[in-house]
Structures are given as structure tokens and as C-alpha cells.
Please model this.
Amino acid sequence: MVEAPVFVVVEVISVKDPEGLKTYAERASRLIGPLGGEIVAQGGGAIGDEPGFAPLVIQRWRSEGAFRAWLDSDAYRPLNEIRLASATMRGAIVPSVAGARRP
Model:
């Protein structure tokens, strides 16, 4: 079975330690590529008068399995500890629809 590409959208809800978050972001960004992902967008602004989001990061992964392997990797484990101590985030795995059949 071939897994389809996915996007991972991460929203930074609150920051407890800005320097720790910066360290996490730099190190995690370097680790993503070798393990099958890439950062495709960062930031985000409101559209018109709509409420905005907290800062967003959008990653593209070759598969959900590759993303989960990154999360479970020995290399990511110490970075996750930095993340948990530095910020509250939430994320979503969004399947890619590129190339999907349309009615």
C-alpha cells in the first residue's frame, strides 16, 4: 500500500519561553528534511475582519507514516521536550487532495 502525501498544520497557541521555542524551531527545521518532510509556509494573517490564527507552520510530508516516524524518532525526542517546555501548540494532519479524482 502506497501512502499519500500529507500536510501538517501546527498552531502556536501560547509561548512560555521564547528562546526555547526559537531553539526548538531551528533544530526541528533542520531535522524535518532528512526524515521526509519540508516546511512550506510560516506565519499567517487574518482575512478581512475575521479573527486571526496564532502563528502557523505548515509542513508537507511524503506520508503520514513518515511524519509519525519523525515524531517517534530518537533525534526528535529531546526536541519535543524543549517544545513542551517552551510553548503550547496544536496540530492537524491534513491529507493531500492533489491528484485525487474529482466528480
